[in-house]
Amino acid sequence: MSLSRQLSCSLDFQSLCLRDETGTRVRKGVILLVYISYIMFGAFMFGALERDFEVQQRHLVVKAKADFLKNRSNMTKEDVRRFVQMMTSLILSGIPPTGNRTTVFFWTFTNSFITCIIILSTIGYGTIFPKTSGGQMFCIVFATIGIPLTIMLFKYIFILVYLPFEKFGIYLQHKGLNEKNVYLWKNFFFAATGSFFFLVLPPFLFMSLENWSYIEGIYYSFNTISAIGFGDYTVVSNPTKDNQDITYSILLLIWNLYGLAWIALLFNLIASFFQEMGSRLNKDTSETEVEEEKELSSSG
Question: What share of the chain is helix, strand, coil (3-state, %, to 5)?
Answer without folding.
Answer: 75, 0, 25
